[in-house]
Each structure stands twice: as C-alpha cells, then as structure tokens.
Amino acid sequence: MRWLHISRDTLASGMIKHAGILSMAGAMMLSSGTFGQSEMTRHLRSQIDKIIRFDTEIDLREIPGFIIGIVDGDSTYVLPYGIRQRSGDQPLTPQDRFEIGGLTKVFSAMLMVELDAAAILPLDTPVLDLLAPQWHTPSLTGITVRSLLNHTSGLPKYPPMFGDTQEAVQNPYGHLDQADLLASLKEVRSGDHGRFRYSHYNYALLEPILTRLTGKAYGTLLARFVLSPLALHATSIDTAGLAPGHDLSGRRAQPWTFASFGPSEGLKSNLADLLRFVRYFLTLEEGAGVLQSDHDPVRVNKRLSMGLAWYLVDQRRAPRVHAHSGHTDGHYAFVAMVRQTGTGVVVLANSAAGVEDLGFLILRMINHNWRRK
C-alpha cells in the first residue's frame, strides 16, 4: 500500500472550490478525557509548524486562531494555534463551539440514511411524493431524496429569489423562511438531472420534507437519530458557547441565523465532537450507512467524486480520502479522513478564511512520512 500523497495540483484542481473543500500554545494529546505533553506530540507539532511556514500563507496576524484535531489509529492529538479572540490571550480548546457551515450536510445525510434504515423515508422516494400539491412543479420531476443528498437533482445552488430576501449580506439565511423556500420552486427551471451540481438548495428542502412527513423539526430528528446515539452533545443548531468569529477584515462576526437552510448550513459543533464523529466513520463497515454510495459515486472531476454528502478523493495507488468543509461569515470547519489507514484531521478556525489547504496537507503528512518515524 502506498502512503497517501495529495499533491498541490490536486488541492488546486477544484477540491477546495467544491467543498467549500505562530503563537505557540502548547500541543495537547487527547487520551481518556485528559490532556498531556508527549514526545510524539512535540514531533507532530514541529512538522505542522513546517507545513504552516513553508506550504501555506497562514498569518496569525490576520487569523486570530485555529485548532487542529488528528486521529491516528488509537491516538488522538489536539493542537491549538493562536488565540480565541483578538481582545484576549486565551487559546482555543476542544470544547469551544464553532459554526460549521456546509459541513452540516454530512450530518443531514446521515440523518436521512437513518430514516431510510428505519423505513420512515426511503432514499429513492420522489420529492413530488413528499411535498404538498401546491408546491408541485415540473422541475421536480425525477428528483429523489437520494439525488438531493448527492447533488444530482439539477437544482441551482440557491433559490432564484435568494438575493431578494437578504436583509444583510453577513446573515444570508436569516430572512428566507420555509414558505419562501417552497414558493421559489415555481421559479426553478428543469435542471440537468443525474449530473453533479453542488447545491445548498438540495439540503434546504430536506427541512420542509421532514416537517411534513414526521411533524417534527429537523433539529429534533437529528438529535434523536444521529447526535444522541453518537453522544455528540455539543453539536446542535443553537449558538450557545460559540467561540467569537472574525470576518475577512478581522472584525467580530455575528453568528448566522436560519429561517430555513438549517440542514445545509446551520449546525454548530466543537473539536471533541467532530473527533468522535471521525472515529465513528473510521470504524464504520465498508458500504454501511452513509457510505453506501461509495462504490458508485457521482463523478465531479478526474480526481473527485461525491458520495452521500462526502467528497471522495481518489488518486492512483493511494487510499481514498473522505472530506468536506464549511464556512460562515466568521468560522471555518474542515474534516477529512483516510479509512484505509485509520487517520483523520479536523480543523476549526475562528476566521472565515485562511486555513483552507492546511487540513489536506496535514493528512498527507501523517500518511506519507510522519507515521514512519
């Protein structure tokens, strides 16, 4: 087996575009709920420092801080960089919560797979069967729940009237409610069904579908079928305990609010929960649950495919990478893993931009050279 090698060309080939994909606070090793220094942790940090210095344009004078989580077999490492907010000197911790933006979709896809397994909502159900008749439109013909999840519905990235409902660019989803969302379907032209077209609209439609089918809110269903079973207690749609976010100019950013689009962009989580989430996926049986489409993914480009919410990076003679990212006006989130080697990386930042390549570069490093030392 060859060690994973993600080239700079691959990083620039559309992976980040589609996925959306040094103040030295002490590195910490996560083990049985406690943190402590180790020689391995110090060596790992020195390698990441080199990546940051030589392979990225990260500047902590512009990005207040970020926190990295690494899963490597039975070991988990947590490495904070920078500060929690510009007005203080506290480092970020694994308990600090972040908006995770489009990374929400991997949780929503998992919810839909669980509902399918429980015979509540089969993934191949036509969307026209799930919406009230007044929202039926020819543009929905042929669209199933599955095609919403893997972005082959042909629907545009946003509803046609999306900009008309925005009262603040910094809070794009705060004023478009579910009635607006459904009414916008009448303005959608039939798309190219079956081909990949990344769309927040796809996942936004899950909310009215679920509400009509079950009578329960998206957050309630997600907690019951996904978050509670996995003990992801810090992951939810509420904004309590958020680390301060910073926009591209460095100013304090306010959290996004959601009148709709919650299943697409609305979750908040912390590093501890996301590392637990990664461990779950690393131990999931091949083809099980949300991985069921991995054997027949939707092609995005030569190296990149889409499963059920997860981007799949395939390169010659290298293990497959599962990845997704998300951002809001003040936060950035990234998760990637190599199931074949039992490795994963989580990066959470309290700024909207500036660390996009870092997670992939760390994943390459721990699979290509660091693990052999």
Give a description of the structure.
This protein has 373 residues and is α+β, with helices and mostly antiparallel strands. It is built from eleven helices and 14 strands. The strands form three sheets. A ten-stranded antiparallel β-sheet has the order 2-1-4-3-14-13-12-11-10-9, with helices on both faces. A two-stranded antiparallel ribbon has the order 5-8. Strand 10 and strand 11 form a beta hairpin. Helix 2 crosses helix 11. It is globular and about 60 Å long.
Record the SSE blueprint.
Elements: H1 8-18, E1 28-31, E2 34-36, H2 39-55, E3 65-72, E4 75-82, E5 97-99, H3 104-117, H4 145-149, H5 178-183, H6 200-204, H7 206-214, H8 218-227, E6 245-246, E7 252-253, H9 262-265, E8 268-270, H10 271-283, E9 298-299, E10 304-306, E11 311-315, E12 318-327, E13 332-338, E14 343-349, H11 358-368
Antiparallel strand pairs: 1-2, 1-4, 3-4, 3-14, 5-8, 6-7, 9-10, 10-11, 11-12, 12-13, 13-14
Helix pairs in contact: 2-11, 3-8
Could you give a short description of this structure?
The protein has helices spanning 8-18, 39-55, 104-117, 145-149, 178-183, 200-204, 206-214, 218-227, 262-265, 271-283, 358-368, and strands at residues 28-31, 34-36, 65-72, 75-82, 97-99, 245-246, 252-253, 268-270, 298-299, 304-306, 311-315, 318-327, 332-338, 343-349. The protein has 373 residues and is α+β, with helices and mostly antiparallel strands.
